[in-house]
Amino acid sequence: MEVSRTLLKAVNLEGGYEVRAGLVKAVDKCSLTLSEGEILGIIGESGCGKSTLGKLLMGFTKPPLKLINGRVLIGEIDIYSYDLEERRRFWGSLISMVPQYSMNALNPTMKIGDFIYDFLKQHRRDITREEALEMASTRLKSLNLSPDVLDMYPFELSGGMRQRVVIMISALLNPKILICDEPTSALDVSTQRVLLELLYNMVKVEKIVDSMIIISHDVAAISQICDALYVMYAGKIVEKGPLEEVLEEPLHPYTRALISCVLTPEERIRKSRITGLKGAPPDLLNPPAHCRFAARCPLAFDKCRQAEPPLLKVGEREVACWLFNGEGR
Known about the structure:
The protein has helices spanning 50-58, 84-87, 112-123, 129-142, 159-170, 189-204, 219-222, 243-248, 253-260, 267-270, and strands spanning 6-19, 22-35, 39-43, 65-74, 77-78, 95-98, 177-181, 211-216, 228-233, 236-242, 312-314, 317-319. By secondary structure, it is of the alpha/beta class. It has two domains: 6-94 and 175-324, Rossmann fold (3-Layer(aba) Sandwich); 102-174, no CATH class. The chain starts with 5 loop residues before the first strand and ends in a 10-residue tail after the last strand.
């Protein structure tokens, strides 16, 4: 069996935001591995730290965001051995990001072609306008968009078209890794399906990018294309493993709660009862020293309120829950 090489490895990442009240540690000791040809999903509710994790993986530590500890290796390159300005030369070519609210990322006063030319000039100073537009035109055709888009302003495009244009620009230099932050938000269901198929094909069929990370709160959407799933809660990774295993038999109580909130046509979901979570996540200015989910967990026992659980190996998965340490009630 052929083993895919590791493209990205993050080790014990810690990062947060310096605010007047102190440090909001949005990412706390998170580790992640991404292999060639893999599409990895990161899910969790709003405010859990998943978008911040994406920025730290990019090396985008623009204040008030700061890296506290940890390493990010892309191949043999340790990106945090370079300062922020030096890291910028990796963006777009080695690793790229489709930002959250990306439909608003385009300059409303510039035509798409002019925007693309300015973008490419930052990476290839000798590129001509004709060469830039030819590159973009070829890529637009692969996304089922007319090259006429290059002569249009963003307001002349639908939301789905703008989203595809931003994805095209982010992947124009064929980066090894593409991070997509909430790529399906604000899109209708049919447009979401088209976009997800596009993202899948970029990795699995056309090989435009070597691997992809998709950050989302929409479990149902990204479950259609991901190979593996990481679940975040209050700055921590609480479960990770192969997609089907996590969805079919979630281990962590929080993962179970997330999936129970999903409305999908699968028979097993239709027959189950939709439930919610009482309470709110902890304050990340002063998080508890024990399990961060304990106050909301229906299965919590004494140990959960005394110590923070490590990620425990369960088959091909890892889960941060004392129930799987032989100490459950």
